[in-house]
Amino acid sequence: MRGNDNLYSAMVGWAKILLPLCALALLATLFLFARGQNEPTEITFSEVEAIAREQRLSAPRFSGVTDDGAILSIHARSARPDTTQPDTVNIDDLQMRIDNPGGSHLTVTATEGELDGRSRLARFLGLARLETSSGFQMETNGLIAELDSGLVTSDGLLEIHAPFGELTAGQVTFQVSAENTGQQMLFTDGVRLLYEPQE
């Protein structure tokens, strides 16, 4: 009986030593293999210099009120000054929202754009998406927004998904209606409508 007690005590004693050592070995293995072998372990000095040279602002926000009383807000992922045009800022993931006095709103997004401080313009470059609170959804290659007046004009051909059907047009202009009751849309340059009757 006493021999069994001694064997049990010896096993417990060895377990107290071996189990923590095994845990440490597993933990060390986890840290050794967690980092991929092809991943760089440090940033090169040239990358640090490039980051230091580039002026960049993260998550900028801009807001104001247009001449018609609409609230205009712009935000983006990042912004950096244009080296060739001192009054212009280049922007990534640009989004603009105009809330009109009558309660309607307009949202414009683009992967890149620019703000021209001298002419007070926001340019949405490349594919721009526009959505209104009345249910219009549009895509076009470029938009220009006048920050003082809130006037938004497309640069070219656009496709529109409307509550009553599909539209194509050469250009569209958005402005607040004279009564401040909503957003007025003017489609020009070869407007085509595919009307879909509502059930």
Characterise the protein shown here.
The protein has 2 domains: 41 residues; 138 residues, lipopolysaccharide transport protein A fold. Strands 1, 2, 3, 4, 5, 6, 7, 8, 9, 10, 11, 12, 13 and 14 form a 14-stranded antiparallel beta sheet that branches. The protein has 199 residues and is α+β, with helices and mostly antiparallel strands. Helix content is 21%, strand content 46%. Strand 8 and strand 9 form a beta hairpin. The chain is built from 2 helices and 14 strands.
Indicate the multimeric state: single chain
| Cα end-to-end separation | 90 Å
> Given the helix and strand composition, which structural class is it?
alpha+beta
Tally of structural domains: 2
What is the CATH superfamily classification of the largest domain?
Lipopolysaccharide (LPS) transport protein A like domain
Mean pLDDT: 80
Gross morphology is elongated
Question: How large is the radius of gyration?
Answer: 30 Å
CATH architecture of the largest domain: Sandwich
Tell me what portion of residues adopts beta-strand conformation: over 45%
Helix content: 10-25%
Instruction: State the name of the first-level CATH class of the largest domain.
Output: Mainly Beta
Q: How many helical elements?
A: 2
